[in-house]
Design goal:
By secondary structure, the chain is an alpha/beta fold. Helix content is 33%, strand content 23%. It has helices at 3-19, 24-29, 90-99, 112-125, 162-172, 192-196, 198-202, 211-220, 238-241, 247-254; strands at residues 80-84, 104-109, 130-134, 147-153, 173-187, 209-210, 224-234, 259-268.
Length: 269
């Protein structure tokens, strides 16, 4: 693995292990809920409200998402659903409310504290058909053609090799299966200071790639019928950007047409 990619993964892993020890309010009001990484972005800028969805569990909601992928994922009773970067289990529990007792939900994460929190939440809820597996999205420890639906919420932008991640998604999906992911993408170029900063990467911004490139990677992995189900612009406040840019560079950035967007994308195998 390249040195930068390895560094990014370790920063992300360390950060989300810390986040797992915090609650939603702390995460949304103090960057990532820990002074160890408080230079990163405030997640309230990204997150959507889950609280009205069936299966929602407040203990599993750390406010880290940027969309509601389960709403657009066409999950059916009896499906096997895989959630990539499952965190404390929020999307898994929402998916479980749809698949029912006859289905199965698998959460994949590489942060041990997140896995511990998710398993505790599942145990409290008494869910025997929701499991959480330790693993890397670029090298999923899952069998070929083993899941019906993949969901993910503001996670793939954190993966250094996105092409490899989507190829892995294609591999583990059954023929005719599909994914629906919410993620962060760009239109225009970010300032170099943001792109180079590993903490900003872990904050879901500098890890984002161009929207057209993102969609091209999905196509190259073999998927078809790609559709953007939802899109919204994300405005990063000046007080956060000033941690990385001086006033003149911030003004220059604001004068460009660069945009940061949350998109929810659906595609089929």
């Amino acid at each position: 693995m390249k040195t930068r990619e390895k560094t990014i993964k370790e920063v992300v892993r360390s950060k989300y292990n810390l986040i797992a020890k915090q609650d939603k309010v702390q995460n949304e009001t103090s960057c990532c809920g820990s002074t160890a990484c408080c230079d990163t972005i405030d997640y309230a800028i990204f997150s959507d409200d889950y609280s009205q969805l069936e299966g929602y569990n407040s203990d599993a909601d750390l406010g880290l998402g940027c969309g509601l992928p389960t709403e657009h994922a066409n999950i059916a009773p009896g499906d096997t659903v895989l959630d990539l970067g499952s965190g404390a289990g929020n999307d898994c529990f929402v998916a479980r409310s749809i698949v029912g007792e006859s289905g199965k939900v698998i959460g994949l994460d590489f942060a041990v504290n997140m896995l511990k929190k998710a398993r505790q939440n599942a145990e409290k809820l008494g869910y025997e058909n929701v499991t959480f597996v330790k693993g890397d999205i670029e090298e999923m420890p899952l069998e070929d053609a083993s899941v019906d639906v993949i969901v993910s919420n503001c996670v793939l932008n954190l993966v250094p090799d996105k092409a490899k991640a989507f190829r892995q998604m294609f591999r583990v999906l059954k023929p005719g299966g599909h994914f629906c992911v919410s993620d962060v993408v760009l239109q225009g170029e970010l300032p170099d200071e943001l792109v180079r900063d590993a903490e900003m990467y872990a904050g879901c911004v500098s890890g984002a790639i161009q929207k057209d490139d993102y969609l091209a990677i999905i196509l190259a992995a073999g998927f078809k019928n790609t559709r953007i189900k939802k899109e919204k612009e994300i405005i990063i406040p000046d007080e956060i950007l000033l941690k990385y840019l001086d006033a003149s560079k911030l003004q220059a950035y604001r004068n460009t047409e660069t945009g940061i967007f949350s998109i929810t994308v659906f595609a089929q195998k």
